[in-house]
C-alpha cells in the first residue's frame, strides 16, 4: 500500500477482495480542528463497513451502505485526540471487523455484507494526515 505523507482522499484496491485474517494498519495525525474522519471498506455497490469518528458529535458511527444506510452502531466517545498521532488497525475476523486504536480495542462490528471477496476498495477521507497505510 503506501507510506509517507499520504494525500486524502486515499483509496487503494484490495486484490482478490477481503478474507478473514486480513488487516489494515493506518498511522497518521488528526488535524488540529477536525470535523470527521471516514475509514471505509467498499464493494461495487456500496460500503461494507464505515468507521466514522465524528468529532463534532463526540462519537464514532459504524454502518453499512447497501442502497441505503443501515442502523447506526455508535460508540460513546471518539478514541482519537485532536492534533495528535494515531494508529488504527481494522482486522477482518471470521464474523466481524475488529477495530483497535492506539493498541486498544475500540469497536467490533458484525458483518452485514457477507460476500467478503467482493469488498475490493479501502478508502480514507477527512480531517487527518496519513503517514502509513499497510494491508496484511
User: What pattern of helices and strands is seen along the backbone?
Assistant: EEEEEEEEEEEE
Which oligomeric state applies? Answer: single chain
Shape: globular
Q: From the helix content, strand content and strand pairing, which structural class follows?
A: mainly beta
What's this model, at a glance?
The protein has 136 residues and is an all-beta fold. The chain has strands spanning 2-6, 10-13, 23-30, 37-43, 46-54, 59-65, 73-75, 85-92, 96-101, 104-110, 119-126, 128-135.
Architecture overview:
- The chain has strands at 2-6, 10-13, 23-30, 37-43, 46-54, 59-65, 73-75, 85-92, 96-101, 104-110, 119-126, 128-135.
- The protein has 136 residues and is mostly beta strands.
- It has a single domain, classed as Jelly Rolls (Sandwich), CATH 2.60.120.200.
- The protein has a six-stranded antiparallel beta sheet, with no helix packed on it. Strands 2-11-4-5-6-7 form a six-stranded antiparallel beta sheet, with no helix packed on it.
- Strand 8 and strand 9 (96-101) form a beta hairpin.
- The radius of gyration is 14 Å and the shape is globular.
Topology of helices and strands:
Elements (H helix, E strand, L loop, with lengths): L1 E5 L3 E4 L9 E8 L6 E7 L2 E9 L4 E7 L7 E3 L9 E8 L3 E6 L2 E7 L8 E8 L1 E8 L1
Antiparallel strand pairs: 1-12, 2-11, 3-8, 3-12, 4-5, 4-11, 5-6, 6-7, 8-9, 9-10
